[in-house]
Amino acid sequence: MKAPAKRSRRAAWLLAAAFIAGSALAASIGDSRGDGWSRAELSILASMRLGAVNLASLDPSNAYESSPAASRLGQRIFSDTRFSGNGAVSCASCHQPDKQFQDGRPLGQGIGTGKRRTMPIAGASRSPFLMWDGRKDSLWSQALGPFEDAAEHGGNRLAYAHLVDAHYRKDYEAVFGQMPDLSRLPWNASPVGTPEQQVAWNALSASEQRDVSRVFANMGKALAAYEKSLQHGESRLDRYLGALADGDPGASSQLSAREKNGLRIFIGKGSCVTCHTGPLFTDQAFHNTGIAPRVAGQPDLGRRAGIAKLRADEFNCLGQFSDAKPDQCTELNFLADDEAAATAAFKTPSLRDVARRAPYMHAGQLASLDEVMRHYRRAPRSAAGHSELKPVRLSESEVADVVAFLGTLNQISQQ
């Protein structure tokens, strides 16, 4: 339902690998063509199967992402409400384990109310850019943003370093080495906090600022090590596709007729697969789909503003706290910043478990998947920039079939 857009290099490689794997799998199915699928359709379907291609990848900017000790530390920090300005908000407050690591709210709710929907973090380690506007280029950098955001955790960098020193020193030093001496430093200071916190931050020496920011960055790297373990599980669609690949005569019974028709529309006349593609059902790109701003007359510039924030981020791949060599920061070095294409463009979210994640869109503007489908069918003009959508002629019955298909992407173990 969307037009193709420029994809990141990593995302393009992953999608190409998925389609190569899909073509090979389709060929192995032979001429059985279960449920009437053509060979071309089978190739697309096989590329959508979880496990069709090895999506594991290492983040060169985080040398600790594969460390079990870092993961254990990150998991503890993830649920610790002391890492907030009011002592009541943790990462798990918005990324709730029983809700696919999101919160089910139109807007994120921390110390205050955010401006966008909480994104789920399962499978996020496979994304080259994080957040709805892509303003972060690694999972560890993304984890840091909410801590200093006034509406989310609402805390400050030096206070967090003191908390790590007081409650996690042994675990921290087991992973990252000796903790710096913070005993002579004030409790509250941050380069992006309140005016008082910024004054206190500027009073620190350059080496003290660097030490504090290093501890803060390592918090993010520990969190990323934990969050990398949060991956999607098998769905009914995966079982159906696996049965097709195995030539199982019972494959057809895995999905209902309505679900299979919805899948046929999804990869066919609906063109949904143009952007919701591959095993994660996302091209990892950014698109303007004409979704109305939450507040009329106040359009969100999305990716256009996100690119500027990404380039200025001290915790990006090229920053001093990154473990990557400059030539390893491919995505950032070759970042496209076409303002026209980026205006009011938002990241394509994964559709895995999507039926459990209402409301929808970047600010929860649409309450149900039926509303989402009708939005794509209408293809309204965008309040800012230019929408990529073209109207799609789908009947009410076909809309219902696609919605039914999307339910097959729910993880089985949680049903």
UniProtKB/TrEMBL annotation:
Gene3D superfamilies: Cytochrome c-like domain. Transmembrane segments: none annotated. The keyword Lipid biosynthesis does not apply. Its main location: periplasm. It comes from the Bacteria. Residues 69-180, 257-410 form the Cytochrome c domain. Residues 1-26 form the signal peptide. Keywords: Heme, Iron, Metal-binding, Oxidoreductase, Periplasm, Peroxidase, Signal. Pfam families: CCP_MauG. It is found in: Periplasm. One of its GO terms (molecular function) is peroxidase activity. The keyword Coiled coil does not apply. PANTHER family: BLL6722 PROTEIN, CYTOCHROME C PEROXIDASE-RELATED. This is Cytochrome-c peroxidase. It comes from Massilia terrae.
